[in-house]
Write a structure and sequence with these properties.
308 residues; alpha+beta; Pseudouridine synthase; Archaeosine Trna-guanine Transglycosylase, Chain: A, domain 4; 3 domains; 9-stranded mixed β-sheet; 4-stranded mixed β-sheet; 8 helices; globular
Length: 308
């Protein structure tokens, strides 16, 4: 007895505007059902309390998730001064208070210290693994543990507005692994007070932006294949920052079979030499993505092969 197929082989990305209250897993499931796709994943977790850009990979695009997650991100966040919480966001119970409220001038003066390459201690309620268990599971179980500081990159940190004495709105550009909850917490401490993240919206992940995203309500329109094709982004959208090479059909076929390839084209060989060992490139032929490959001693070694 054959197993019933879960969906159709749909390949590409959907830029989804995740609403508050929905987990990333629930969002992926909703998009997969709406697109009737047989396989799906996402390009970077968003907490239920956060909204905004969640790139959803369908079909063979799931093989490029790690490169989507590595893309630069932009956030709009609101920090609530005067109250620290156990989770560093609005979900946790208040654990400490302070009467001090920083001025806009004080906030702007503190921001340069939080830009560039900095060290950050993640929230204890993060998804980081500690001895094989998620930190948030340990924290909820009341177990004592410490997370080590780790390097992150903050590309930009701008004060947008101070709507009242208790709140400040920021735009943040950052690299992979930066926690906005921890950033708000640490900024508050540097300003002589305490604080937590009261609202978070992710504006972009790499080339995926909320301006071009679909909402939960729009998913209902995907019953027609034409509507889906209007919103389905190419697999290569997640590979925008990766150098691209175009091989011959014969060379591409060898990559598909998992073989190492040395391109015949002098321009391709020169590009490989310039990039150097360990560099990652996307490889196509006839305008169709074939594989993600790693440069190894002047050759191309397939890392992820696309079945398109």
């Amino acid at each position: 007895m054959t197993r019933k197929r879960r969906g159709e082989p749909v390949h590409g990305w959907i830029a989804f505007d995740k609403p508050v209250g929905m987990t990333s897993t629930q969002a992926v499931a909703a998009v997969r059902r709406a697109c009737n796709a047989d396989k799906a994943g996402h390009g970077g977790t968003l907490d239920p309390l956060a909204s905004g850009m969640l790139p959803v990979a369908l079909g063979e695009a799931t093989k490029t998730v790690q490169w989507a997650m590595a893309g630069a991100k932009r956030y709009r966040m609101i920090v609530r001064w005067g109250e620290a919480t156990a989770t560093d966001d609005a979900e946790g119970e208040v654990s400490e208070t302070s009467p001090h409220r920083p001025t806009a001038a004080e906030i702007r003066a503190a921001l340069p210290a939080f830009t560039g390459e900095i060290m950050q201690v993640p929230s204890t309620y993060s998804a980081i693994l500690v001895d094989g268990r998620r930190a948030y599971d340990l924290a909820r179980a009341g177990e004592a543990f410490e997370l080590a500081a780790r390097p992150i990159r903050i590309d930009s940190f701008e004060l947008v507005d101070c709507p009242d004495a208790d709140h400040a709105i920021f735009d943040v550009g950052c690299g992979k692994g930066a926690y906005m909850r921890s950033l708000g917490r640490d900024l508050a401490r540097a300003l002589g007070t305490v604080g937590h993240l009261s609202s978070l919206r992710r504006l972009s992940v790499g080339k995926f932006t909320v301006e071009n995203a679909i909402s939960m309500d729009m998913l209902g329109e995907f019953g027609h294949i034409r509507r889906l094709s209007e919103h389905l982004l190419p697999i290569e959208t997640a590979l925008d920052d990766i150098p691209a090479l175009a091989l011959t059909e014969a060379e591409a076929l060898r990559l598909r079979y998992g073989q190492i390839v040395q391109p015949l084209c002098p321009a391709d060989r020169a590009c490989i030499d310039q990039l150097g060992n360990g560099s990652i490139v996307s490889v196509s032929t006839g305008g169709k993505l074939v594989a993600i490959a790693e440069i190894d001693a002047g050759m191309l070694r397939p890392v992820r092969v696309m079945n398109l």
